[in-house]
Amino acid sequence: MPNYVVGHKIPDSDSICSAIALSYLKTTLGEPTVPARLGELSPETLYILDKFGFEQPELKLSYAGESLYIVDHSDRVQGPDDIDDATILGIIDHHKLGDITTNAPLECWIRPVGCTNTIIKMMYDFHGVEIPKDIAGAMMCAILSDTVIFKSPTCTTADIKCVEALAEIAGIDDPKEVGMDMFKVKSAVEGTPVRDLVLRDFKDFKMNGQLIGIGQLEVIDLAIFDDMKADLEADIAALKEEGGRHTVMLLLTDIMKEGSEVLVSSDDASIVESAYGVKLVDNKVWLDGVLSRKKQVVPPLQETFGA
After folding, report:
1. For residue 42, what are the contacts with CB-CB under 8 A and spacing of at least 6?
2. Cβ–Cβ < 8 Å for 192, 54
3. Helix boundaries (H) for 29-132
4. pLDDT tens figures, 112-158
5. Which candidate, 61, 211, 230, 240, has a CA 20 to 30 Å from the CA of 10?
6. Using CA atoms, how far apart are residues 47 and 37, in angstroms rounded to an integer?
């Protein structure tokens, strides 16, 4: 029976490409491993898979009795619901250390870089395994996505060097051009149901016993949201109530202006104001220079909540 590799709920491109890349590496090293996913894929991820000729990983929600590698997260709330009944073989991640625990030793690669695929590139190098052209292309795209084409404060020299190396393997002359094509796909939101947009890149976090949901939509021009902003605000308020969340935030990130407008629905909006040193106006605020949920949004909010 093969092992599995799976990323977080509401998977993004890093989670999916990490699952594909790590499963190939492990299988090549003699450990049959299958990529899986915990949800439907975003248009950007579908674009990447189509560009490099991949099928979608298996949709698998239950892992009881299975052995698996966790990629791109280590928070229990973001993983499989029955994770306590699975055997975790390893965690590969670039976020803060979460609350997943194990009963046995595990392989653990956690690095302060911009993307999980950067770490997996290091794993290929460590084991001396050649990266196939198609996998290299997908990994490159995931890094460009997570680092916002190197604009995110999470981006490191390692991420840039990995993109350069992966682009060479994949035969791509201008990776930044590919990155812009991906963000154009992300920006095509017209006709998409509002709930699908809110959940396109959405993560739940536990902060001092409270459930906090934070979504993010990265586009090349915030004007595309002008006619739908009221609907987005209404939907995050509904999502907050439906999930028993204390707060739901939606970041509308303009990668060209390099900042985010944040829409907020909260039981106590003063916590959000205190976290970022701002005043909300009609439950929203512009945060200049804020591109990263991981580095610029979650840490100050978690500190303000007290855990």
Report:
1. 11, 12, 13, 186, 200, 201
2. no
3. 43-52, 116-127
4. 999 999 999 999 999 999 999 999 999 999 999 999 999 999 999 99
5. 230
6. 16
Amino acid letter, 267: D
Query: Which DSSP letter does residue 61 get?
Result: -
Nearest CA-CA partner of 238 in 226, 250, 224, 251? 250
Q: Are 225 and 192 in contact (CB under 8 A)?
A: no
Domains of the chain: 3-184 (3.90.1640.10), 194-305 (3.10.310.20)
pTM of this structure: 0.90
In degrees, rounded to 5, the angle at the alpha carbon of residue 201 between the alpha carbons of residues 200 and 207 is 135
Task: Return the C-alpha torsion angle 41, 47, 51, 55, nearest 10.
Answer: 20
Edge-first strand listing for the sheet containing 33-37: 58-59, 33-37, 3-6, 67-71, 87-93, 107-110
How many whole angstroms separate alpha carbon 28 and alpha carbon 72? 21
Question: Within 10 Å of residue 127's Cβ, how many Cβ atoms?
Answer: 11
